Amino acid sequence: MPLTGHPIVTRLTRQMKLNAADIESLAAIFERDLSFGKREDLIVHGSEFRNLCFVKDGYAIRYRLLRSGKRQILKLILPGDVVGFPVSFFDRSSYAVVAVSELTYAVCPFDSYVRLCYEQPQFGLVLSWLAAQEAATYAEHIVNLGRRTPTERLAHLLLEIHSRLLEVDRADEASFVLPFSQEVMADALGLSVPHLNRVIQRLRAEHLITSNSRLIDLTDLPGLQRVAQYQPMDLAPIPVLHALDVAT
User: Fold this and answer.
1) How far, in whole angstroms, is CA 248 from its chain's centroid?
2) Are residues 173 and 87 in the same domain?
3) Which letter does DSSP use for residue 147 in this model?
């Protein structure tokens, strides 16, 4: 299955050098593309899921639904993200994933990816790098919900989404299309929709952002970063083997 133009290739090649043969090896283990409509379930809470699915287009959310009916969104899933990570490492899923737009991803059986890692260990390395990035993002979400004010939370989340879309060439330097509804954003930030709306208006009033429909302009990027106490997290590239040999 050809991966030309796939955002996962953009992400991977930012971390390590992959030649045409490497890309072909990765493409060879993908079985097919699957498409989902808005509100279709990708993963059901409590179910077994043994695939790594690399999002090509569209958006989804990873979430937990509590007995009270309240929903906590754990991750906003963007192009270039991997659905089935980390659930494929466990016997069943502790969360659910649902599409919030039309979505297409390339399906790779988990066992096929593991086999590829044995044959070409660089693919295991790059998955470790992506796991480190995801862990750092989760840590920021914990700080958001635990200690940041609602204004700081929203500013930080907007900057995170912009950075992640920029990484896969789906955003401009200071603007992006926000693909998520206010309801989704509120559930990601632990706020009510009316409260979120007031916070959006505050950021607009302080000329930190402007918005037109779903288009978000980061009018004062340094100011927004100061409000959010945002530190960009750029992954270090994976060292090449000969560089490690020199270092030792």
Assistant:
1) 35
2) no
3) T
pLDDT digits (tens, 9 = 90+) for 176-210: 999 999 999 999 999 999 999 999 999 999 999 99
Q: What is the pLDDT of residues 211-234, one digit of tens each?
A: 988 999 999 999 999 999 998 888
Q: Residue 191 is part of a domain; what is its CATH number? A: 1.10.10.10
CA distance 88 to 219: 40
- State residue 52 phi and psi, 5-degree precision: -105, 125
Please check whether residue 33 lies inside any domain of the structure: yes
Give me the residues paired with residue 43 across strands.
97
CA distance 151 to 154: 5
Instruction: Using alpha carbons, select from 217, 184, 234 the residue that is nearest to residue 62.
Output: 184
Same domain, 122 and 176: no
Residue 173 is assigned to a structural domain of this protein:
yes
What single-letter amino acid sits at 129?
A: W
- Where in the sequence is the domain holding 196, given as residue range(s)? 149-228
One domain, residues 12 and 76: yes
Helix (H, G, I), strand (E, B) or coil at 109: strand
The SS3 of residue 181 is coil
Count of beta carbons in the 10 Å neighbourhood of residue 230:
20
| Overall number of domains in the chain | 2
User: Taking the complete model, does pTM exceed 0.90, yes or no?
Assistant: yes
